[in-house]
Structures are given as C-alpha cells and as structure tokens.
Amino acid sequence: MPELPEVETVCRGMRDELLGKKVVSLWKSDKNLRFPLNIEDASGIIGQKITYIKRRAKYIIIGFKNKNSLIIHLGMTGQISFEKENLNIKKHDHFYIEFFDKFYMKFHDARRFGFVIYDQTANIYKHRLLKDLAPEPLIEYFNSEYLFTLLKSSNKAIKEAIMNNRIVVGVGNIYASESLFRANIHPEIKAKNITRHQMEKLVSSIKDVLQEAIDAGGSSINDYVKSNGELGYFQLNFNVYNRENLPCKICENKIIKIKQAGRSSYFCPNCQKY
DNA sequence: ACGTGTACCTGCACGC
DNA sequence: TGCGTGCAGGTACACG
Q: What is the pLDDT of residue A1?
C-alpha cells in the first residue's frame, strides 16, 4: 500500500501523538510479521521516552532516550492507530505499545508483509535494512544530473529503475506511473535512452507528485488510513493509476494497463509515446 | 558481482 | 451461493 506520501503522513501523525511519551509495556500477537520480533529483547525500550520519529524511504524509525530503536514498515496493508483507555484487540492486530496513562499505539496488518523490529545499534542508519538505501526523492541531492549519470547505461525500463530503492527510495507502483505520465515518458523506455531534458522533467514530476500527495494526506485505496483514522484524498487526483480504459484527462485517449516486472503499469499511449 | 524471480499473506472482485 | 482464479500501495533473499 503505502508509498512515501502515505508513510510520511503516518509518521507525522505519530510524531504529533507520541513524542516524549514513556513506554509502559509491549505486546505482540502470536503470528510473525515479515520479520520476527522478540518481545523480550524489545523490552529494552520499556520505561524509555520517545525522542524522535523519522522516516527513511518507507521505513519509520522510532528513537528512544537510551538510543534503542524500533523500525516499522507498513508493507502493503499495515496501519498505525492510537487508542486511549479501552484497548480493543481485533483480527490482524499484531503489535502495540502501551504508554503512560493508558495510551496505546497499535500496528494492524492483514497481509503481514509489514514488520516491527527492535534494534539497539547506536547509529540506526547503519542497520542492514537502511545502510544501502538511495537518496530521498525530495532532497536536492536527487536531481536530474544524479539520475541521468546513474542510469546512463541501464537497460532497465525507466519505471523499474525509479522503483528501485538503490536508485531512489519511496517511489512505489502508484507514484511511478503518475510521475511518468506527468513527464510524458513511456514506462517501458530503457533508462539509458532517456534524454537529459526528459530526465529533468521526470525528476521534477516525481518531486511534485510526491509533495502533492503528502499535502493531500496520501492516497486511500482499500486499506490505507492515516493514523488518526482519516482518509487521504490524493487518489482523486490520479491521472493513470487504476484508470484502465478510462479517458486520459489530457487527451481523452484510453489509458492502457500493462505488466512490468510483475506489476501493473498504467499510461496514456498518446501522451507517453515510446 | 550482478540482475532476476519468488516468496511471504489475506481479502476482495470477478466469472462460472 | 459457492468455488476457483487473479490481483492488490512492498521488498528481502535465494538463485543463476
């Protein structure tokens, strides 16, 4: 589910609710998520206050006073929610933290592609999951020069390239299609054949789409909700994603759906010529 | 050392 | 109504 804008939105909601709160207890369900969590190890955070909550790619990092961390990933269907007083454990709830005064943060994930893991590495960015990640798309370092140079001999389709977290992080299946549409680039063009001019357009499209989606609170399809339970509304602004056979909003040609690397890509054959 | 598949899960929409 | 099939915001890891 959640791509960068959704994770960023969840992260902001967590920051509002959790910064400075002290952990009282932890609970996990008997089902493993993508990675197992040893709840006894993780008890290292009991009694600790949360000092920061950050996002890196689609990972959420919770930092505690004693330098321990939790890394959370929402996978496809993960949700974070908060409850006060009456905690209600439902199907597919897999983890919660109880804070002082009966305040709870709960992790819910039907498909269990997400995870919560505990780590005590002082520099969490050296964690195996984080150490090899490409730059964030919204920082200046991610620019057309960077992307052009990195991809100038890549035979990969451009859509697969921008979804690769060694190249740039946070761009998932929805925003890859949406960015390519805005840049008028066909998703199957080989990355090495993208011109400098196209690359400039692509980079600014990626930045714009992601920023607009963050501003809209993410895109809600099926499972995604913000941590306060509200829906994002960027899905209303999709130009191509999930719009097979519907008219292009620019030229009215039918939107086409194809498979690339096992995933659906959507594009307008008129606006995005090969 | 690489690039490419596959595996991990549940729920839902669809066609028969 | 029920059953089988395919598909869904992701990515670590095994394999060639």
A: 55
CB A236 within 8 A of CB A219: no
Question: Is the CB of A98 within 7 Å of strand C?
Answer: no
Half-sphere exposure of A83 (CA within 13 A, CB side): 16
Q: Show which positions of strand B are touched by protein (CB under 7 A).
A: 4-12
Residue range A113-130, pLDDT digits in tens: 999 999 998 899 999 999
C-alpha distances (whole Å) from A49 to each of A22, A59, A73, A189 are 4, 20, 21, 49
With H, G, I as helix, E, B as strand and everything else as coil, classify residue A148.
Answer: helix
Distance CA A49, CA A46 (A): 9
Does the C-beta of A3 come within 7 A of strand C? yes
User: Which tokens hold the place of A215?
Assistant: 């501003």
A91 touches strand B (CB under 7 A): yes
